[in-house]
Recover the amino acids of this structure.
């Protein structure tokens, strides 16, 4: 009799697992939508786009002329630092330069991008192309990211590979993330979303993060290697991961509160991308945005955004 009860329990658990698996697959299937650049230019379409993002939708925007111009400008910055060469040559610098030197010089490129107004103006061109006006949005300046092949094997880089929501770093619930690959990328070179956990509480240590302390002691453009709090998730369902591939100049548009995790790049070359963030100020002031299900951090980074 005991064996029959155990078997029935196991069958019930198997059915629950199967149902959960089907639900995860269904949510993955509708999570990423591809749209053409400029398809949400008017106010009504832009509002609908934002509302979809706040509800968990992820958009891949293709054929953006402005995004490709931004990518070209960032590649030109790399050429200023490392000498004229195609992007593919910069992707292999990790094999010819000492690690610390590469880290420091990439840091110089990131700081240059962050500081030059004419380069940040290209960000506003990307926004305008998609119907996001400078008057309506606070904008976090563009940043360049370089994820080396095998970088996940370095213990010091471990925080960069943990699953997290950007809102755990004191980013507003109305924040929208813009991520642009600088070259074609496969699923093993990007990052994964966890759409099934978008509005589900996940265990995390965001309560340890305070933005004012972070800005004073470390900062996002810091290359000093100082230790800091990097909020991350724990005990979540990693099987619900949704990786993706996209082409150079595509734009991945998603809510800052989406749980996501950088892929462990084993492609044999550094992955380059650029990204920035926007916050519609009217939405923010009205308390609109993605749901906050588990964010316990303190402070706000919004005051550091352009136009805030």
């Amino acid at each position: 009799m005991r064996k029959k009860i155990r078997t029935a329990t196991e069958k019930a658990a198997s059915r629950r697992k199967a149902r959960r698996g089907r639900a995860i697959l269904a949510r993955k299937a509708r999570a990423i939508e591809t749209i053409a650049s400029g398809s949400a230019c008017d106010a009504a379409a832009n509002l609908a786009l934002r509302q979809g993002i706040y509800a968990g939708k992820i958009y891949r925007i293709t054929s953006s002329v402005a995004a490709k111009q931004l990518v070209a400008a960032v590649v030109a910055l790399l050429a200023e630092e490392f000498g004229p060469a195609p992007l593919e040559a910069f992707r292999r610098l990790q094999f010819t330069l000492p690690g610390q030197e590469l880290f420091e010089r990439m840091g110089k490129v990131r700081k240059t991008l962050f500081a030059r107004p004419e380069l940040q103006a290209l960000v506003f061109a990307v926004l305008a192309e998609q119907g996001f006006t400078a008057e309506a949005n606070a904008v976090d300046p563009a940043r360049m990211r370089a994820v080396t092949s095998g970088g996940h094997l370095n213990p010091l880089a471990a925080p960069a590979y943990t699953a997290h929501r950007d809102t755990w770093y004191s980013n507003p619930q109305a924040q929208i993330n813009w991520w642009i690959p600088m070259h074609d990328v496969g699923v093993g070179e990007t990052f994964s979303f966890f759409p099934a956990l978008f509005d589900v509480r996940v265990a995390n240590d965001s309560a340890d993060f305070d933005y004012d302390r972070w800005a004073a002691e470390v900062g996002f453009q810091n290359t000093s290697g100082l230790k800091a709090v990097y909020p991350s998730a724990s005990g979540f369902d990693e099987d619900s991961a949704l990786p993706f591939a996209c082409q150079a100049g595509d734009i991945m548009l998603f809510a800052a509160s989406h749980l996501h995790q950088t892929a462990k790049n084993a492609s044999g070359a550094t992955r380059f991308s650029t990204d920035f963030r926007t916050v519609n100020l009217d939405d923010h002031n009205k308390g609109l945005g993605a749901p906050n299900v588990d964010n316990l951090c303190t402070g706000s980074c919004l005051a550091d955004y352009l136009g805030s």
